[in-house]
Amino acid sequence: MTWDVETLSRIQFAFTIMFHYIFPPFSIGLGLLLVIYESLYLITKKKIYEKITRFWIKIFAANFSVGVASGIVMEFEFGTNWSTYSRFVGDIFGSPLAAEGIFAFFLESGFLAILLFGWNRVKPGMHLFATIMVALGSMLSGFWIVVANSWQQTPVAYEIVVDYGIRRAVITDFWEMVFNPSAMVRFTHVILGAWIQGAFLVLSVSAYYLIKNKYVEFAKKSFAIALGLAAIASLAQPFVGHEHAKIVNEWQPAKLAAFEGLYETQSNAPLYLIGWTDPETRETSGIAIPGMLSFLIHGDFEGEVKGLEEFPEEDWPAVNGVFQSYHLMVALGMLFIAATLLSLFLLWKKKLFTPSWSWLIKLYIPAVALPVLANQLGWVSAERGRQPWIVQGLLRTSEGVSKSISAPEVMISLILFVLVYILLFFVWLYVLDREIKHGPDHVATVEAGYKKKSERMDALKPH
Amino acid sequence: MDYNIVWYILVGVLLIGYAILDGFDLGVGILHLRSKGDYNRRIMMNAIGPVWDGNEVWLITAGGALFAAFPNVYATAFSGFYLPFMLLLIALIFRAVSIEFRSKEENPRWRNFWDWGFSLGSIVAALLFGIAIGNVVIGFPIGSDMEYQGNFFDLLNPYSLMAGFFSLSMFALHGGIYLNMKTEGDLQKQIQGWIKVNYWIFVVFYLVFSGFTLYLKPEMIANFSFGQIELPGNKHELVENHQTLISVFAWTIVLLNILAIMNIPRMMAKGREGWAFISSGSMIAAIVMLFALGIFPNLMVSNLDPAFNLDIYNAASSGYTLKTMAILAAFGLPFVASYTIIIYWTYRGKVKLDESSY
User: Fold this and answer.
1) Is the ipTM here above 0.95?
2) Residue B334 belongs to a domain
3) Residues of B in Cβ contact (< 8 Å) with A91
4) Considering the domain boundaries, does residue B352 fall inside one?
5) How many whole angstroms separate alpha carbon A254 and alpha carbon A324?
């Protein structure tokens, strides 16, 4: 590996997007749960739901701000590091990004002001409306960015033109571009993943309170509702993933072949549960269900699935890396189904919150890391699986990089991002930890923290 | 009028929205460390608390709009400006998280750290915006392949640095005038003292900066010189055909700009807080509009050869995309305006701290 502009830019993009993608799924998942909790409060008028809603708003806020801060970088990094790519796709990729700003970010950030600070200022119905708008805005933002990314995977509705000496793709039909073959299925897949991640955060914190035997009623109610969401989303995910795989097979067969380490085109293609693949020897070993891949793709064990041999080696992604990230994601998905269904069953039998199952509750505390990992691995599979293309079949990643930047410049910015993001990550963890330890009964008083009289000037004394 | 011009105006509207709205957020940040005592600092930070995030969206949307409508400008500017731009991103990150994290801990050292993060982030961002605008005015080394051919230090030329200090002084003034609306008592009196000083600093920078611009780049007023000054490169036919109309329009803005600046001390003296803010907002809008009228139809000027300028045609997306996106924007912008009005109406009046404040 040479430390050139392309390599460093890829590392920087991967680092900044993976850091960023810790946060939006929490916002999307927690946003939906806030809508549910607050609706329950308005319907039942029970104080406990007010407490639940207001506590999770605080957690939401800390998470949202790091998401916004790290998201600004993403909006501009295409231009800074991938300017040749930006010239090529601006007509197409820029449009959903602009639409995201106009339709999602303004909605989200506007009503966030009411969600975070409006509890004493607006009527309860208006506050719930703001919560719904923030949740909707976060999902719309997910929609537009997945649309943009999906076009890179399954490009349609474009033509290649050369204007002013620059080769580029331009839209021929806007809505066909938006609803490109993989857009909706990938959007659904991403949103379900976000719901699982958001729900697991609530499960984790609630489990912590249950184990500590604090705020028990609060924790049980938070837990039960989040568990419902996590179970529904986890159960739906394989069906969506299955539809997604069929589209990958149709549009990006090299990626699908890499997912399963399939080198020879074959009918009766196996599905690996776990394994190892070596592109040098073109061998894949592990535990496999014979014919299952063919069955899943074609509904027929004898269906033919294309292997990597169909493609020149320079068009192969990093086969084993993609294989492993994909299989780990699938395994985690299965684990979520098993854990949430078991917990739901125990909840129904009124056994979940009994001492004999406290080990299960205890496991939910660290388990929040798993959906974060699964969401990251899913994107790693999707993006590394697309390599060496930045736009599938149209533009190689090596052709997309900026021409006017140098490797030392990218090295400087990469080091800066690493330092700043490590700081942010630990501060974020620290702040979350403080909020969680303070608990739902904690109310920050305005006077707290002023030890000396001189710190509180008479700025707000009524005159 | 074609869709390229429509998008030139739309990107301009987004930048004016950003400069007015996030401009006062930056200004509050620039002034932040001058206020003493935790309580005052909280008042200042919470004055922008509910709105700064939405204000920043104007910048993000302007970035998206630039990408969609003029991808070659998006590509050339951000890759050419690489390191200053990375510095801007880090500054904006620090400003954002400082606001959120500051109140999470009562330890004075913790709060002081985020106070510095908030203020330095705002100062660096305000300087860099000015430096960027200054470079657009005097031009970049852009080659025939639309790529930036200079280096980092080319961007730090004296004229652009002066533009940076001009924007710093403008946002400091604007932020003070915003805070004047949101504060009461001793803190407000203190802020009014800052405004008096910052006003004259701004006026000096405004005059010097305008003078240097006319001296170094007289072509900045070529579009509205009643046909007296010729641009290097061609004028847009819209300008050629309506020289008198456009010149009268632009000079009206110049006049309004000067009136707005003169109106600020008048309204401050009368205690008309809202009108003082409207004056400084109009002043910023007028300055951005004059800049846009000056460089039209270019977006980035090449100082190697005017033929290499990036303008609203050679930098633009296809006509179909410009049209589709213009329709989407026309549909979306009324919604944006309504959210903005709802939020500012909800949080009108003086800042009151409560348990959900920063």
Assistant:
1) no
2) yes
3) 68, 71, 317-318, 321
4) no
5) 15
